[in-house]
Amino acid sequence: MDLVLEQLRRVLEDDAVGIVGIYGMGGVGKTALLSRFHNEFLADATHLDVVIFIDACRGLGVDRIQRMIGDRLGLSRKNRGSQEENAATLFRVLNKMTFVLILDGVCRSLDLRMVGVPIPRRRSKCKIVLATRNEDLCDQMGAKKKIKVEALPWDAAWKLFTETAGEEMIDSHPGIRRQAEILVRKCGGLPLALIAVARALASKRSLEEWKHAVAIMNSDPSQLPGVAEHVLRPLKLSYDLLPDDTLRSCALHFALYREGCRLHQNLLQECWIGEGILGDFEDVEEANNRAGYLLGVLSAASLIDRVDANGYTRMHPVIRATVLWIACECGKKENRWFVREREGLTDAPDAETWAGAKRLALGYNEIAVLPEAPRCPDLVSLKLKNNLGLEKIPDGFFGFMPSLAFLDLHSTSIKELPPGIGNLVGLQFLELCGTKLKSLPKELGALTKLKYLGLNWTVDLASIPDGVIRDLDQLRVLRMIVSYRSWKAGSSGDGVDMGELEALNRLRILDITVGTAAALERLAQSRRLAPATVALLIKGCRGLSSIELPSVLGKNMKRLKWLRASHSKELEDVVIGGGGGGGGLENLVLEHLLKAKIVWRGSHGQNLRGLYIYGCNGMEQLIYQKDDEEAEDGRASGGAAIVPFPNLTEIALRGLPELKRVSEERKMLVFPSLESMEVAECPKLKKLTLVAEKLREIKCPRSWWDQLEWEEEDDATKSAFQLIMKPLQ
């Protein structure tokens, strides 16, 4: 708070800033901050004619705010008229004064001109300070300076809690102190929660009482005295103020994950597609943009935090407790949302829990047995992800789940789906990634409302009945990387005809594994499948001797982001920069290719972010430069340095016993964006002829590092690389 106060003081002295916005989540201390600002800096400010402090937390209208300002200015209520007349009066009075207007708890955009408040001009001593939970409101109201109020760091949070609960009592028993530390962590530095929880425990003197309080905070914080009234209900306002139900559904979705969990946009986006939250979209880019927009609104509303620039977000533990409480109808229906992830559960919930639940989240536990036929008429969502001991789903398990729309069986050990899966006619999201399925049942074709089907990493999946894929005509997303690959491209042979995939008119995102050159050609030429392909695994493909990126994959395959080629004795050239459309590839994986080499032909490859090469036994040189008249970039011919992939951030080289060099003799590879490099099992690679100024780690065995050879002029490079070398075990 002292740091923010200092920023406010400097703004008060900065004549270039007329409007300042203070924002942060509810309960973080914005009101207390403004009170201190008023008392410590404004109350005795001799250059000010008036300071006006208005609590706008109830969404006050223009008329009410006009009356409050008029009262503060001493204007008679008898002479007040229409809204426009009052605005003119206030403007005329305030325009002659040096004022500071503080608006606390702003929850909707307010047109200050309609109120009658003059907007401070440059070199004016007048200030307008507004405090809100929503960062966007600061911009909408013209704030020239924005200040975020963060949650308290640990030391300050601990001090606030212990002073409120009583330091002597907390220090009376080491067990109580440990429980107090748990409670402070669960409050996440939020003063509102710290004070409420501390007051609830202030009179508790036994260790058992404190342990019970921790158990309540873990299961249902609303049961702790004062928490529902003084914490959850005030924070609910942030949820209520979201502009539509779509955003409220997005906020609620975060409560289905364990407390403190970092969630990537891609994960949320897939779930939101499956639940219909994102609606229809034309391609993966539009889905990305829509999901990013929704997350941006939630972040601005202080309901989630952006963890980093890589798409990860997190919900504050107290905000999560609030939305979970809201989902359970403000505590009226306990366990309506039954979320028990990573709690070491060995048994499935009892029959009563199944019967009353709307959503069950039981991921990352040790559940091995499911009930035979649970009756759950209201169950919409069931998450069983990462229960590794779960090998079988009872035949009657899906018999009484008429409302189920979301089913996540990711990384369970199930080997088959029961025929009863066909009863889930309302299912929209089905995640089977990482399971041990060997075949799909024909009853899967009854799931005609399915929008998302995840089958990535189902390595044993070898059989799909004819017609099943075609029947899923509402699919938007189909994930099948490291999965079924026996696609039939013509009239002969075994496997599922690729025409079934082409019949999916609504398909927008496709991850696929192909095992024949004919299937690859059919995919690349398909005007429906090629534009939807985001990830592609080419496995085997007898007769395929080269891959030319991007042109050989067809001008239609413009959205391909991830390509992996593996297990081929014939594939020799992976040519990057072959002309044509596309060029958006971000990750390239080459694995177990006996003869493969990378040939770079010019400016294409601009978007490549990751290059991973594993087990390519015949590879002697990392990158070959094709020096011909087709090279589009001047760096592609002549000179001592080439820049093949300017945006590459990560490279991994493993199991390359014949690799001797990274580039041609007297050629230096330049990677201006490279941050991480891994080298292992490359015994003949003796020199690193590359320039990477942003490199922050080289992961490699110590024995390999010690045998590297350096030229005399490479001393500076060697010293720099030595500092970032991280030995592999």
UniProtKB/TrEMBL annotation:
GO terms for biological process: defense response. Residues 606-694 form the Disease resistance protein At4g27190-like leucine-rich repeats domain. InterPro entries: Apaf_helical (IPR042197), At4g27190-like_LRR (IPR057135), LRR_dom_sf (IPR032675), LRR_R13L4/SHOC2-like (IPR055414), NB-ARC (IPR002182), P-loop_NTPase (IPR027417), Plant_NBS-LRR (IPR050905). It comes from Musa troglodytarum. This is Disease resistance protein. Residues 367-517 form the Disease resistance R13L4/SHOC-2-like LRR domain. SUPFAM superfamilies: L domain-like (SSF52058), P-loop containing nucleoside triphosphate hydrolases (SSF52540). Keywords: ATP-binding, Nucleotide-binding, Plant defense, Repeat. Residues 6-167 form the NB-ARC domain. One of its GO terms (molecular function) is ADP binding.
